[in-house]
Design brief:
Elements lengths: L16 H12 L3 H8 L6 H7 L11 E9 L2 E8 L5 H12 L5 E5 L3 E9 L4 H10 L1 H8 L4 H5 L3 E10 L7 E9 L6 H19 L2 E8 L6 E8 L11 H17 L1 H21 L4 H12 L9 E5 L5 E8 L7 H5 L1 H10 L4 H24 L4 H15 L5 H13 L4 H8 L3
Antiparallel strand pairs: 1-2, 3-8, 4-6, 4-7, 5-6, 8-10, 9-10
Helix pairs in contact: 1-2, 2-13, 4-14, 9-10, 9-14, 10-11, 10-14, 15-16, 16-17
The structure holds (R)-mevalonate.
Organism: Pseudoprimorskyibacter insulae
GO molecular function: hydroxymethylglutaryl-CoA reductase (NADH) activity; hydroxymethylglutaryl-CoA reductase (NADPH) activity
Pathway: Metabolic intermediate metabolism; (R)-mevalonate degradation; (S)-3-hydroxy-3-methylglutaryl-CoA from (R)-mevalonate: step 1/1
């Protein structure tokens, strides 16, 4: 039987990192090996790192936190997040905790369909070439599928062909063939790039042109994940604020991001604050996720928000997110990096789509945290509290002194290393 994680862990925030890891590893049923990998000490041997990229000189550490309280489609998840920004993990956990009594997040995904593009230049009759290529779709798909028997055996492989025409480019007309490939549990870049290169000579022949580029598109708009959360207004009534007012504030904040690219960029950055850390912790390609998310946000010609917040029937706050997520469980660093493997075990996801659904939910939670704060107190209050902990550490505080010093410098209204040092030395 697969392990059932309970993602609600009391006072996780207040524990020391070692105790926290013990608690999280227990909750997720992790082996000692995975626990050590998450602890990070020696998780990535230099030899392995040296094989991953070029000119390796060392390793670069980042904090790995765990967001608690997540429930997605009725299943609990402890979410690994590799991130350097304070507030992110706390905010995700907090919003997940608010949503938890109301069923948490509901999420769904399309099939994991990636796109690859084959660019054809010098075609005399672009429209005729489009027709010839589409007529040969079965032959082209069979050729694309002729190498990767494993993928095809798993139900994946090339499923469709599209042909796009650009009549007016700086170098004349262009025919661009798209391969639509079900990549199953892989991120899929290698798979689709190999297919695009494989069919290129045949495409050249059919189109009577010259093939130049053969590469995936990071605008993975056929590989979408959607998540939704619904909170009664009273769940948002915090610190004496009226829940209905907070809900309205969130909707109004989102409205600006929908219409104004200046705000949308920041709004979406806040969403990616939740998404990227999970993508990184699981060894996935966060540049691909970023590229896909922002291109999708601009798909209608104007850059807009990736989420929507509405007041639903009975006054509930309803949040939704939809974005391309090309995430894999197999291949790349997900397989080679021991901490990424352990992070995937902590998450306990069985398919890449399940991973995408958790990731989209974290993005939505992060967005709610930001909008709730922005629509009420502003973000600096919470931010500064966490920032103060970092300053306390920089000033030399350890153990219980960290929180004591942080509290004191916040109270004094001077979050600086000098003040923290003075508090620490009892001056
Ligand atoms: C900061 O990293 C992210 C926010 O700016 C996001 C937002 O404004 O929605 C708080």
């Amino acid at each position: 039987m697969t392990h059932q994680t309970n993602s609600r862990i009391e006072a996780l925030r207040d524990m020391a990192p070692e105790a926290r890891l013990d608690r999280v590893a227990d909750a997720a049923g992790l082996s000692l090996h995975d626990k050590l990998a998450l602890a990070g000490q020696g998780a990535l041997p230099l030899d392995l790192a040296n094989g991953m990229i070029e000119n390796v000189v060392g390793l670069f550490d980042m904090p790995l936190g765990v967001a608690a309280n997540f429930t997605v489609n009725g299943k609990d998840y402890l979410v690994p997040m590799a991130v350097e920004e304070p507030s992110v993990v706390a905010a995700a956990s907090y919003m997940a905790r608010l949503a938890r009594p109301y069923g948490g997040f509901q999420a769904s995904s399309t099939l994991p369909l990636m796109r690859a593009q084959v660019q054809v230049l010098g075609v005399a009759d672009p429209e005729g070439a489009r027709h010839r290529l589409l007529a040969a779709a079965d032959e082209l798909m069979a050729l694309a599928n002729s190498r990767d028997k494993v993928l095809v055996g798993l139900g994946g492989g090339c499923k469709d062909i599209e042909v796009h025409l650009f009549r007016d480019t700086p170098v004349g007309p262009m025919v661009v063939l798209h391969l639509i490939v079900d990549v199953r549990d892989a991120m899929g870049a290698n798979t689709v790039n190999t297919m695009a290169e494989l069919i290129a000579p045949k495409v050249e022949q059919i189109a009577s042109g010259t093939v130049r580029l053969r590469i995936l598109s990071n605008l993975a708009d056929r590989r979408l994940t959607r998540a939704r959360v619904e909170l009664p207004a009273e769940a948002l009534s915090l610190d004496g604020l009226n829940g209905a007012d907070v809900a309205r504030g969130v909707v109004e904040a989102c409205a600006l991001a929908i219409v104004d690219p200046y705000r949308a960029a920041t709004h979406n950055k806040g969403i990616m604050n939740g998404i990227d850390p999970v993508v990184i912790a699981t060894g996935n390609d966060w540049r691909a996720i970023e590229a896909g998310a922002h291109a999708f946000a601009a798909r209608d010609g104007r850059y807009t928000a990736l989420t929507r917040w509405e007041i639903g029937a009975g006054g509930a706050l309803v949040g939704t997110i939809e974005l391309p997520l090309a995430l894999g469980l197999v291949g790349g660093a997900t397989r080679t990096h021991p901490a990424a493997q352990a992070a995937l075990k902590l998450l306990n996801v069985e398919t890449a789509n399940e991973l995408c659904q958790v990731v989209a939910s974290v993005g939505l939670a992060q967005n709610l945290a930001a909008l709730r704060a922005l629509a009420t107190d502003g973000i600096q209050k919470g931010h500064m509290k966490l920032h103060a902990r970092n300053i306390a550490i920089l000033a030399g505080a350890t153990g219980p002194d960290i929180d004591r010093v942080a509290r004191e410098i916040v109270a004094q209204g001077d979050i600086s290393v000098d003040t923290a040092k003075a508090v620490l030395s009892g001056a």
